[in-house]
Amino acid sequence: MLNFSDSHLEYPCSTRDTKSNKKQFEVVLIDADDTLWENYFYFEQARNTFLNFMEKQGFDRENVNYYLNHFDTKRLEEIGFGSNGFKKAMEFTLSQFYNESKKEIGTTELKLLEKIKTFIYNQPSIPYPGVKETLEYLKRKYKLILLTKGEEKEQLNKVERSGLSRFFNSSIVLNDKKEEHYRELIVSLKLNPEKTVMVGNSPKSDINPAVKAGMYGILIQRETQWEYEEEELIDSDRIIIIRSFKELKNVL
C-alpha cells in the first residue's frame, strides 16, 4: 500500500514513510485503451496510411495532417471516440482538399477510408506484459470496474478480444470522461470516493477529472501520448505516478 501524503508521488521512492496515511480502497476503476493494451499505435498507423495516400495525390503532408487534427478534435466533441469518428474526420479532410483542387472523390478513396476504419476496429487488443497477472492479484483484493470511453460496441469488443473481461465486476463505456461523468458514477454506483481510485494513462480523461470528483488517481506514465489527451496533472496529494501496469501490485 502506498502513502498518498505527498503531491504527485512517484513510485518507487524508498525514502518516504509508507506506513502513514495509507488508503484502504474498495473499488479500483481501470481505463482500457493504452492502459491495458496498445491503442495509440494503431491510430497512428491509420493516420499515416491516410497521409501517405494524400501525399501521393499531390497534397502537402503537414497541411493535410493539420486539417485532420482539426477535424479529429471536432469529431471527438460532436461524434465521440472510435473508428467511425476517425473515418468521419478523414472524410471531412478529404472533402476539404478535393473540393479546393476540384478533384472528385471516387471508389478508390471511399474504399481506403473503409479499410482504415476496419483496421482500427479490428485492432488485436493484446494486453501489455504483466497485465493479466496484475489483474489476478487486484481481483482478490478489490472490486474492479473497467471504465473506458468511445463507441460501446467497439470498446466491449476490444475487451472480449483481450481476454480480460473475466477480471472485472463490470465494464462501463462512456461517451467521454470528465469530472461530471465521474460524479455521476459516484451516485449511480453508490461509490465512496474516499475508497475509490482511478487507474489510467491519461491525465485529461483518467486522473484529473477523477481526483476533482473526490477520488484518488494512479497515472501510468507512457512514453507516447495522444495529443488530445495531453494535460498537465493537477496539484494534488491524491495522485501517484507509476511506469507500468504491473507496478500496481507494489502500490495497491
TrEMBL record:
Gene3D superfamilies: HAD superfamily/HAD-like, Putative phosphatase, domain 2. The keyword GTP-binding does not apply. InterPro entries: HAD-like_hydrolase, HAD-like_sf, HAD_sf, PGP-like_dom2. It holds the Pfam family Hydrolase. One of its GO terms (molecular function) is metal ion binding. Keywords: Hydrolase, Magnesium, Metal-binding. The keyword Ligase does not apply. It comes from the Bacteria. This is Haloacid dehalogenase domain protein hydrolase.
